[in-house]
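Exercise 7b. C-alpha cells:
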C-alpha cells in the first residue's frame, strides 16, 4: 500500500495525499503546489507520505 501511495504521489500528487491524509490542510498545500507545477507537488507529496508512514512506524 505504501508503494502505491508513493507512486500516486509522484504521478498525481493530490491523489496520493488524499488517500493518505484525507481532506485537510495537507491536501490543500498539495493542490496549490501542483497548480504551480507538477514537480513541487510531487516532491511535497512524496515527503508528506513518507513522513506519515514514519510516524506510524514509531507508534
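Sequence design result:
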Amino acid at each position: 500500500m505504501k508503494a502505491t501511495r508513493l507512486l500516486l504521489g509522484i504521478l498525481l500528487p493530490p491523489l496520493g495525499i488524499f488517500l493518505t491524509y484525507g481532506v485537510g490542510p495537507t491536501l490543500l498545500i498539495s493542490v496549490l503546489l501542483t497548480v504551480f507545477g507538477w514537480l513541487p507537488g510531487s516532491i511535497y507529496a512524496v515527503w508528506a507520505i513518507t513522513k506519515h508512514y514514519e510516524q506510524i512506524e514509531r507508534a
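Instructor comment: The first helix runs from residue 2 to 11. Residues 25 and 31 are 10 Å apart (CA to CA).
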